[in-house]
Amino acid sequence: MVADRGEIARRVFATCRLVGIETVAVYSDADSDAPHVGEADYAVRLDGGVPAAAYLRGDLIIKAAQRTGANAIHPGNGRLAEDPDFAAAVAEAGMIWVGAPAETLGTLRSKSATKALVAEARVPVLPTYTDPAKVPDFPVLIKPDAGSGGAGMRVVRDATTLAEAVASTRREVGGDVYCEPYVEDVRHIEIPILSDGHGSIVPFGERECSVQRRYQQIIEETPSPAVDPGLREELCRAAIVAVRTIGYVGAGAVEFLLDAEGDFWFLELTPTLQAEHAVTECVSGYDLVRLQLLVAEGGVLPMPGPPPIRGHAIEVRVCAEDPAYAWLPASGTLHRFAVPDVAAEFRPLPQPGLRLDAGVEDGSMVGVHPDPTLAKLIAWAPTRQEAARMLASALTRTQLHGVATNRDLLVRVLRHHSFRSGDLDTNFLDRRPEVFAPLLSAVDAVRISCLAAALAGAAGRRATAAVLASLPSGWRNVPSGSQTAVYDGPAGPVEVGYRMNRFGELSGWWVRAVDPEELDLAGLGQAPVLDDHPRTVVVVASDERVVLDVNGIRLTFNVHRVGEVSYVDSPEGSVALRELSRFPLPAPEAAEGSLIAPLPGAVRRVLVVPGQRVRAGELLLTLEAMKLEHPVHAPSAGVVASLPVHPGAEVNTGELLAVLDPE
């Protein structure tokens, strides 16, 4: 049984099928149609209320395993993989635990205690301060003593705000925290390791994990462009000492900070099969899940030492979130998920190419409770430059419809000169705002995509026309009005207009911005053809494919329409265009001072009460979605007039959170 969901469950199932092991999936109500459920031999529903809570109920998971006759539990790579109580309960139930021993997980539960233990073995560590009053220098990084994934971490640059920041972080994470020096301009390097119960500890090179958002990795690669053979040997030696000191058995990763001078410091030992394990599988040739199962069964690792590194592999995490809006989580139906030229899924590649590990497919529902990662796309090539180029090209041509993602940001990072040159650190994204721009940003590219959407829409209507279906769309035997459509585009409402001649050929077109106040659209169809638009010839115009000759260059646009939204994919990039009604219904207006939920999620903390006076910018409450906490601040000073939500309440996008009477 895999006590997890999505991509990691599918990954483990893929190896189990290869080695002849039957599989059991668990699922919440929200995931009843998820791909991992259908791929298992058996599946058991978990009744845990909120979908995220269901997968954390170790008692329910063990009962489900016993009902199906499972004799082993793989915890995936979520919270249960690091839970010593769950590991002990699995062993007490007489089942094999595919992970680190419960005693070891108990040691690793405290990061500060783990650092102290490793420091005694002379592995470099940064100083740790549990008492804010004893912090000697700044800046410092506040970190939770338990947990992972970057939650609760924050930088403090002066002593005046440290005590308050520590107290706030303690409330946020619900446990102890500590401080350590915040080292600027560092890389995040980890050494993946496998250790069996017979004394063998094998490091698998290093992984570069420096491109992060909110202390969470989104691009990983191996080998690191900053690590030479000598430094690699030092890092691997330190990782082996840490693993042996802690008594670790199983798959995991020893994480380090690395500065420009080659100095490094131990961060933590993560006791899971890391989300980025695929890049290691590519360059080593080993199936790490298979080795995990081998170790869990009491076997001996088959390699005498670190395997040689073959070529270069880069992985990106495609996440349901909007980087341009503070990484706001996205939810909804994933209408299309199509990645081109994939050579393998969920298993090591036989030769250089693309690998896809995805937890979703066409029609998948994306909620806000699980991790935002939809899929991991991996490129393996002889060189780093080839891998980056291959990955950026595949992402550009990937069709992702229905949910906002970080795809454009990933492409811009992969093509950025700093990334290509290997100039990386954990603040890479903060220092390069240009990577947050959408791929489809050129004015002409947006205009032509709008035209393609309008032509595809007209072709779709002609295909179902009951009268004069053989005539071209917009055909007139005497020139008259133009064909028009209005879309809500990337920069607001735009009108698309075009005219056809008597031969059904495009004789002119325009795209112009529309004032939202004028969306009754009266008379907009009479706009003149603008001279600054390129000469365009329609080669093909069907409801799903439009080919245009623009100034002698042919471009193909794939158009996928779902309801009122047209998803347009082309070599220029991708854009979603929602067609606006000519006669929109009036929408109800919110009361003045209303604070509306910017995303669906669960109310985690409420810090005010009705009648309380608040300052501008004061934190009122927080929403939790996709393992991240999102603050809601007062836009101005005032008094809390209404507070209809409470901690634990589930809210949808647009739902009222509070009403503030401004001063």
UniProtKB/TrEMBL annotation:
<feature type="domain" description="Lipoyl-binding">
    <location>
        <begin position="582"/>
        <end position="661"/>
    </location>
</feature>
<dbReference type="Pfam" id="PF02785">
    <property type="entry name" value="Biotin_carb_C"/>
</dbReference>
<dbReference type="InterPro" id="IPR000089">
    <property type="entry name" value="Biotin_lipoyl"/>
</dbReference>
<dbReference type="GO" id="GO:0046872">
    <property type="term" value="F:metal ion binding"/>
</dbReference>
<dbReference type="InterPro" id="IPR011764">
    <property type="entry name" value="Biotin_carboxylation_dom"/>
</dbReference>
<dbReference type="Pfam" id="PF21139">
    <property type="entry name" value="BT_MCC_alpha"/>
</dbReference>
<dbReference type="InterPro" id="IPR048429">
    <property type="entry name" value="MCC_alpha_BT"/>
</dbReference>
<dbReference type="Pfam" id="PF00364">
    <property type="entry name" value="Biotin_lipoyl"/>
</dbReference>
<dbReference type="InterPro" id="IPR005481">
    <property type="entry name" value="BC-like_N"/>
</dbReference>
<keyword id="KW-0092">Biotin</keyword>
<dbReference type="GO" id="GO:0005524">
    <property type="term" value="F:ATP binding"/>
</dbReference>
<feature type="domain" description="Biotin carboxylation">
    <location>
        <begin position="1"/>
        <end position="434"/>
    </location>
</feature>
<keyword id="KW-0547">Nucleotide-binding</keyword>
<dbReference type="Pfam" id="PF00289">
    <property type="entry name" value="Biotin_carb_N"/>
</dbReference>
<keyword id="KW-0067">ATP-binding</keyword>
<dbReference type="InterPro" id="IPR005479">
    <property type="entry name" value="CPAse_ATP-bd"/>
</dbReference>
<dbReference type="InterPro" id="IPR011053">
    <property type="entry name" value="Single_hybrid_motif"/>
</dbReference>
<dbReference type="Pfam" id="PF02786">
    <property type="entry name" value="CPSase_L_D2"/>
</dbReference>
<dbReference type="InterPro" id="IPR001882">
    <property type="entry name" value="Biotin_BS"/>
</dbReference>
<dbReference type="InterPro" id="IPR011054">
    <property type="entry name" value="Rudment_hybrid_motif"/>
</dbReference>
<dbReference type="InterPro" id="IPR016185">
    <property type="entry name" value="PreATP-grasp_dom_sf"/>
</dbReference>
<dbReference type="GO" id="GO:0004075">
    <property type="term" value="F:biotin carboxylase activity"/>
</dbReference>
<protein>
    <submittedName>
        <fullName>Acetyl/propionyl-CoA carboxylase subuit alpha</fullName>
    </submittedName>
</protein>
<keyword id="KW-0436">Ligase</keyword>
<dbReference type="InterPro" id="IPR011761">
    <property type="entry name" value="ATP-grasp"/>
</dbReference>
<feature type="domain" description="ATP-grasp">
    <location>
        <begin position="110"/>
        <end position="297"/>
    </location>
</feature>
<dbReference type="InterPro" id="IPR050856">
    <property type="entry name" value="Biotin_carboxylase_complex"/>
</dbReference>
<dbReference type="InterPro" id="IPR005482">
    <property type="entry name" value="Biotin_COase_C"/>
</dbReference>
